[in-house]
Write a structure and sequence with these properties.
The protein is an alpha+beta fold. The protein contains two helices and seven strands, in the order βββββββαα.
Length: about 90
Amino acid sequence: MYSQLDPSGTRFLLLKEICDHRLDETAVPIQEKYMTQGNNRTLWHTTKLWYLQVLWKDGTTSWEPLRNLKESNPVEVVDYAVANGID
């Protein structure tokens, strides 16, 4: 079995690969990626609208929020982002 169980029986799926990515429909368009506050113009930094499609080692796939995966699998997320030009 490719999943892991902790002593209480909670199942943890192991990531095999990141397959795809998408933005939530409420995402900020690329043309509006900067915020202006007074005379300051800053880049809008947010990951809450990104989702990554994950292939788990048990053969299932699911769409997971980037904010969760960057905490649990930071190396895989960076590798995928760089390879797909979304870094």
